[in-house]
Design brief:
The structure is a single chain. With about 550 residues, the protein is an alpha/beta fold. It has 2 domains: about 50-295, Metal-dependent hydrolases (TIM Barrel, Alpha-Beta Barrel); about 350-540, no CATH class. Helix content is about 25%, strand content about 25%. The protein contains 16 helices and 29 strands. The strands form 6 sheets. Strands 3-2-1-4-13-14-15-16 form an 8-stranded mixed beta sheet, with helices on one face. Strands 18-17-22-21-24-23-25-26 form an 8-stranded mixed beta sheet, sandwiched between helices. Strands 5-6-7-8-9 form a 5-stranded parallel beta sheet. β7 (about 110-115), α4 (about 130-140) and β8 form a beta-alpha-beta unit. α2 (about 85-90) packs across α3, α7 (about 185-195) packs across α8 (about 205-215) and α12 (about 260-270) runs antiparallel to α13. The chain is globular.
């Protein structure tokens, strides 16, 4: 029995021919069978290809793929290029396969890569390691689409044998290689690109992006919860639209509730950039670069498209995947699916005395300075506040204590440092989402508050926690200590509550917990803290607490 075609009329946006025309789209069995121009069509709604996030860590939404999809499709997202690097640091290849399997349960088209840097460095303790052979086995799978961001750019420039093997395997299989090289310029950028990476999402200045474009790379304009580079890189939409894509990288659930790539498109259109160029950055460019099985509104393509109310407000009214209506009027039509909860969490409760900081050298502290809306930090020097024979936090100076607790062993020494930029006046916040190894990271005004916040995370075997002013709040993350098993909107509400609490405790950051999660990310300059101590990316080595 033949199925009858489905039809929809509107203003069809043809990104390949660069034209918009009144017409009708027809599809049957998930594929487009006809696109007919019809001047009698009076509907003003726009019909265009769906949006593709060109680089995102699904784990950073605090949701598993099936639940992420339920929120994302309402904003016109039909596909993602997803790096499962976070869960791989906790569970290894088993974590990558978990993400692939969970993603298959939903129509949204997830495209996962093989993480290239697990652990990201040898200066931290992760839950797993993927050597060159393990990465090669992942790349050999048809459902692993690319080599995920090569974060160890010093290793690439130095000819690290394992990285070279991984990139050679990807090249042999014809799979793209993603880059990650914050701050790399000039000859170093050219050498990095020549080794194999084809994209970069870490540019935080226009000059850096232009250097990498000159080296042959494509640039991803990132706007997420912590790193926001849209304003700096927006001029590329007018000068290099064929070599630009949009991405979020990391997007917490409170922002995902309100928008995804549709937000990028609205901002891009507001700059005055060409409409067709903007939409190609949101769909055609990532599909063609990564060779994705995603429809682009052509006859024979999968019926993956969105309906938008018009150019002025640019609100997604409907999202279709393989011809199925998966979201309408801002609400997902996908069913709620329960996800499994694999984990690896062995840390035991700690005492305030475990967070004491004692002098180890000279008079001045090496201090991390966090920057709002950035993953990078500054390495500054500050005079310590001393009580007895201990260094203590000084909230009046915004000099707070930061600690990283190894979660993969029952008890290990706690790494302690000092940080500015968070602004807490009382209490503490803690998280088991701590890129890249996902130990527990916490910031607080005193050792008792730090212990209380860390122990809330340990009690739930992963989560986000805040304590202070007589209150305690926690969002449990039972899936690898990274993701919630709650409904997406419920998780977003809990996250919003924690975000507000952190701000009531004094933080002035736009996204305190997202920024917190990057304070242990050693590969992003300059000063960070791992479970083994303070680490300078500029010096590519540990530095003492004080010197």
């Amino acid at each position: 029995m033949k199925t009858r075609p489905q039809r929809l009329a509107g203003q069809i946006v043809d990104l390949h021919a660069r034209r918009i025309y009144p017409g009708v789209i027809e599809w049957r069995r998930g594929h487009i069978t006809a696109l007919r121009e019809d001047k009698r069509v009076r509907e003003t709604r726009l019909i265009m290809p769906g949006f593709v996030d060109a680089h995102i860590h699904i784990e950073s939404s605090l949701l598993p793929p099936a639940e992420f999809a339920r929120l994302a499709v309402s904003h016109g997202t039909v596909a993602t290029v997803s790096d499962p690097h976070e869960i791989a640091n906790v569970l290894g290849a088993r974590g990558v396969l978990y993400m692939i399997k969970d993603g298959r349960r939903t129509p949204l088209k997830f495209h996962f890569g093989a993480p290239s840097c697990v652990p990201a460095t040898t200066f931290e303790t992760a839950g797993a390691a993927l050597d060159a052979n393990a990465v090669a086995r992942l790349l050999a799978r048809d459902d692993v689409r690319y080599l995920a961001e090569v974060m160890n750019f010093p290793g690439v420039l130095g000819g690290d044998p394992a990285l070279r093997t991984m990139m050679d395997v990807a090249k042999k299989l014809g799979k793209p290689i993603d880059g990650h090289a914050p701050g790399l310029r000039g000859e170093q950028a050219r050498a990095y690109a020549a080794a194999g990476p084809t994209t970069d999402h870490e540019c935080f200045t226009l000059a850096e992006a232009r250097d990498k474009l000159a080296a042959g790379m494509k640039i991803l304009i990132r706007e997420g919860s912590a790193a926001r580079n849209f304003d700096a890189l927006a001029p590329l939409l007018k000068t290099h639209p064929d070599r630009v894509m949009f991405c979020c990288d990391d997007l917490h659930p409170d922002l995902l509730i309100g928008g995804h790539l549709d937000r990028h498109v609205r901002r891009a259109l507001a700059t005055g950039a060409d409409h067709f160029a903007v939409l190609r950055c949101a769909s055609v460019n990532p599909v063609e670069h990564y060779g994705l099985d995603v429809g682009l509104l052509r006859v024979g393509d999968a019926a993956d498209f969105v309906v938008v109310d018009g150019w002025k407000k640019f609100r997604v009214q409907r999202t279709y995947l393989r011809g199925e209506l998966v979201a309408a009027n801002g609400r997902s039509r996908l069913k709620r699916l329960r996800s499994a909860t694999p984990n690896q969490f062995r840390a035991q409760p700690r005492m305030p005395a475990d967070f004491v900081a004692r002098p180890t050298g000279g008079a001045a502290l090496n201090v991390i300075e966090a920057l709002n809306g950035q993953l990078i930090t500054r390495h500054i020097r500050e005079q310590p506040t001393v009580r007895g024979r201990e260094f203590v936090a000084d909230p009046k100076r915004d000099l707070l204590k930061i600690a990283v607790v190894n979660r993969y062993v029952r008890r290990a020494p706690i790494a302690v440092g000092f940080i500015k930029g968070f602004g807490l006046k009382t209490g503490a916040i803690a998280s088991s989402v701590a890129h890249d190894s996902h130990n527990i990271v916490a910031i607080g005004v005193d050792d008792a508050a730090l212990a209380e916040a860390v122990n809330l995370v340990i009690k739930h075997r992963g989560g986000l926690a805040a304590v202070g002013r007589g209150r305690r709040a926690v969002l449990p993350l039972p899936i690898a200590g990274l993701m919630s098993n709650l409904d997406g909107r419920a998780a977003a509400a809990r996250y919003t509550e924690l975000d507000r609490m952190a701000k009531r405790l004094g933080s002035k950051l736009d996204a305190p917990f997202m920024t917190l999660s990057f304070m242990a990310l050693l590969v992003i300059p300059d000063l960070k803290l791992s479970d083994r101590g303070l680490f300078s990316a500029a010096q590519w080595g540990f530095v003492p607490l004080n010197q």
